[in-house]
Every structure is written in structure tokens, then in C-alpha cells.
Amino acid sequence: MQVTITRKNAGLSESLKSYLEEKLSVLTKHYGKIIDANVVMDNEGKEYSVEITLRVSRRTFFSKDKSINLRAAIDSSVEKLYKQLIKSKEKTRRKGLTPEEAVLRGKVIVPETAEEEMVESDIPLLTFEQEEDTEKPEERTGT
Known about the structure:
By secondary structure, the chain is an alpha+beta fold.
């Protein structure tokens, strides 16, 4: 993963650079398809802001955070990215489920006609019945 670090209004120390690369390497362990990372750090008065943009195959993730402590802002931004990556990974896993696994995990709604056929197989089903609304809405006049 290629990391580009930019710091506005101040210099970049070697210890801060290594700290940031260490934090971003944790993301690579959990999500290996990261192409590059762009980090922009800025001083806004007494607060530090950190913006991190990750380019992953076919997707781009972004996080921004402000804090009084620069390392706390970095930690928070990386944590936000971690949550986004996990959520994306879970979505792709859900799309790859077989129909039986999807029913067992509650990801698919089974039509009521299929319920009668599947009662014998002891597979838990997730069904929803819609209530029919027979009441007519009240007519309102402009007075």
C-alpha cells in the first residue's frame, strides 16, 4: 500500500510518519485490497484535523476527524475507516450466501407459499404478513 502524507502549516516528524503508517497497516491486515492511502493533516487553531482517503479496488473510503491531540485524531479516523471496511466486507459476504444460508441467517424473506412446503424440513423461516388497510382515510376540506 502506498501512503501519501501531507501536513499543512507544520512539518512532519519521522515518529509521526511511522505512527501513522503503523496504524494504517492494521487496516491492510483486515482488508488486503487497499491500493493507496492519502492523509492530510492540518492545524485549525488549537485543534488538529485529519482526513484519510483510502482507495480500495472499486471503492473509495473517507474519514475526517478533529481533536486537540493529533494522535487521537489519527486513531479516531483510522477507527472510522476500519468500521467502513468491515461493513463493506460484510455486504460482499452476504451477497455470496446460498439460499439456505440466507434463510438461516435471516437475510431473505420467504414467500408464504413456500412456507407450507418447508415445514417438514425443520428449517427456520422468516416471514412477514402484511396487514390490509380497509379503513378509508378521512377527507379533509380546506375550512
